[in-house]
């Protein structure tokens, strides 16, 4: 059967319209499926938010170690006489400390100097040699904190005329124990904060992404109690108080939140 020109054209248009409708229908069906997948991915990302929290812990503890630096300073016209006088006094100081209970392994020489003395008032920049000063200092480091006042008194009675510094610290073993306890408390503090924030956002803490441990917060370096010559007063004992030191620890934790 032969079709006329008009019939052929009409049939062609019908076929094209059918293809166009089919294509549009396919697009209508395909595009919504893509949107559904994207929405699910976005929803999944929202359930894996990260929360950064810093936890801290602080404690106060008594020092269990003391360090004192004391010594003898002597002056004479000759270096030999100044040294001889200094040596005699220092030996008396060391013996007095030993008799008071200071152990040999608790003492060490911290400094020893022999310096010339000049008078510049009459001779200008050149100066006139007037004598020599010998200074000998020792360090005492001990855990017997309660004895430090007595040791200073005995040393001064024996001839010590300089107390350069007295400071208290925490021994390494005790510091390690405190550090471990503070780290546990700091982590617990961070977890408590994370739980509060997660609950407010209607989420739960589902995991930990990372943990960063901060440096242990130690008290500042002790300053000298004495920095010049001291005199002994037989009517009173040297008051030395250890006090307490504050130590702190921090941790930074990245928590993973989910439903």
Task: Walk me through the structure.
This protein is α+β, with helices and mostly antiparallel strands and 259 residues long. It folds into three domains: 1-46; 50-61 and 175-217 and 250-258; 65-167, 2-Layer Sandwich (Alpha-Beta Plaits). 40% of the residues lie in helices and 33% in strands. It has four helices and seven strands. It has helices at residues 5-46, 79-99, 148-158, 172-200; strands spanning 50-62, 65-76, 107-119, 128-142, 162-169, 204-213, 244-258. It has a four-stranded antiparallel sheet. The protein has a three-stranded antiparallel sheet with strand order 1-7-6. The chain is elongated and about 85 Å long. It starts with a helix and ends with a strand. The model is unreliable at 1-47, 223-229 and 231-235 (pLDDT under 50).
Order of helices and strands: HEEHEEHEHEE
Oligomer: single chain
CATH first level of the largest domain: Alpha Beta
Task: State the end-to-end CA separation.
Answer: 70 Å
The named CATH superfamily of the largest domain: Protein of unknown function (DUF541), domain 2
With strands numbered from the N-terminus, the spatial order across the biggest sheet is 3-4-2-5
Topology, number of strands: 7
Give the overall silhouette: elongated
Structural class, from helix and strand content?
alpha+beta
The biggest beta sheet reads: 4 strands, antiparallel
Number of separate domains: 3
- Helix tally? 4
Indicate the low-confidence ranges by residue numbers: 1-47, 223-229, 231-235
CATH topology of the largest domain, what is it called? Alpha-Beta Plaits
Report Rg: 41 Å
Helical fraction equals: 25-40%
Average pLDDT taken over every residue: 79
Q: What is the correct CATH architecture of the largest domain?
A: 2-Layer Sandwich
Kindly estimate the percentage of residues that lie in beta strands according to DSSP: 25-35%
